[in-house]
TrEMBL record:
One of its GO terms (molecular function) is diguanylate cyclase activity. Keywords: Membrane, Transmembrane, Transmembrane helix. The chain crosses the membrane at residues 22-40, 46-68, 80-101, 121-140. It comes from the Bacteria. InterPro entries: Diguanylate_Cyclase, GGDEF_dom, Nucleotide_cyclase, Rev_trsase/Diguanyl_cyclase. SUPFAM superfamilies: Nucleotide cyclase. It is an enzyme of class 2 (transferase). It catalyses: 2 GTP = 3',3'-c-di-GMP + 2 diphosphate. This is diguanylate cyclase. The lineage of its organism: Bacteria, Pseudomonadati, Pseudomonadota, Alphaproteobacteria, Hyphomicrobiales. Its EC number is 2.7.7.65. The keyword Phosphoprotein does not apply. One of its GO terms (biological process) is cell adhesion involved in single-species biofilm formation. The keyword Transcription does not apply. It comes from Nitratireductor aestuarii.
């Protein structure tokens, strides 16, 4: 059982991305020597019991600590169940040791015999908890896999930003809030200038590094309430909380300047990077999020045609009936 607990502790560590250490097996190995010595050389049931209890309890406490340490802000039910199981086993283990010690048993007493009622209850109890614990661990693995799949489906693999699918969902949510509660928002579409020349000159690997740096720069300067997404290729989209076109344009201009002022290095060479942007604000006549996005996209085209490295705002054209 102690070797099983050692393996369980290592499994929990590996599950949370921490590498188990070889010396973690030493306590379980030492138990073999203690049991052998105090069974065959100097018989002492109390010494065997107490030593094994300390190692066993320590392993369970370490496993509980590892499970709590690896938990996220929203702990899944499977992890809570597993923590609860180990806590129940720990309490049972302590009660069992106390009962054995108070029973004043002979030094030749063996827990494998049927001479005490705990010798019968313990195997049944531990077997049931092992089955439930294994099931909970498998559920925890399933929850972790589901979370990984959700992250993979909602984020861009290169930059770590939300992807176009998630942008559409977030945009639809903000659009509904704007319609129902008047919480206006803005959309900025940003596109790197002459990005193809960077790929052609320095290679696609360098181009990817530039995209990662741009993503970090935008996320750092967009503000905590903004949503920065990679729409595809060298195009990014930012959902802003600004309620009017002037403040939205100013926020987008700050992003443009932040990118322009950031130095991207390739060895001893500095790669100049700029972007063009179009920005639009929600209007009462918009029917869906894509209407706001489309107007921001049209403004981006004008920024490109107007010389690049600039911000254009959406024109106040009438909304189709």
């Amino acid at each position: 059982m102690i070797f099983c607990l050692t393996a369980y502790y290592a499994a929990v560590q590996s599950f949370d991305g921490r590498r188990p250490r070889w010396w973690q097996a030493l306590p379980a190995v030492s138990v073999l020597g203690v049991i052998a010595w105090f069974s065959m050389v100097t018989e002492s049931f109390a010494v065997r019991l107490v030593y094994c209890a300390v190692i066993w309890g320590g392993l369970m406490v370490a496993t509980i600590h590892s499970l709590c340490r690896g938990a996220t802000a929203k702990m899944p039910a499977s992890r809570r169940i597993l923590i609860g199981i180990f806590a129940v086993v720990l309490i049972y283990h302590l009660v069992r040791v106390i009962i054995y010690l108070r029973a004043d048993l002979d030094d030749a007493f063996a827990i494998e015999s049927g001479d005490h009622w705990l010798n019968v209850v313990s195997p049944i109890f531990m077997t049931l908890l092992a089955i439930v614990g294994t099931t909970a661990f498998l559920l925890m693995c399933s929850d972790h896999l589901r979370q990984q799949l959700e992250v993979a489906a909602s984020t861009d693999y290169l930059t770590g930003l939300v992807n176009r699918r998630t942008l559409a969902l977030r945009g639809a949510t903000r659009f509904e809030a704007a319609q129902d509660r008047g919480q206006a928002f803005a959309v900025a579409v940003l596109d790197l200038d002459n990005f193809k020349s960077i790929n052609d000159t320095y290679g696609h690997d360098v181009g990817d590094l530039v995209l990662i740096d741009i993503a970090n720069c935008l996320k750092l300067n967009a503000g905590p309430e903004s949503v920065v997404a990679r729409a595809g290729g060298e195009e990014f989209t930012v959902l802003l909380r600004d309620r009017d076109i002037a403040s939205a344009a100013a926020a987008t201009e700050r992003l443009r300047q932040a990118v322009e002022q950031t130095e991207f290095h390739m060895g001893m060479t500095t790669i100049p990077v700029t972007l063009s942007a179009g920005v639009a604000v929600y209007r009462a006549g918009d029917r869906k999020f894509e209407d706001v996005l489309r107007r921001a996209d049209q403004a981006l085209y004008r920024a490109k045609a107007g010389g690049r490295n600039r911000v254009e705002v959406a024109r106040l054209a009438a909304v189709p009936a």
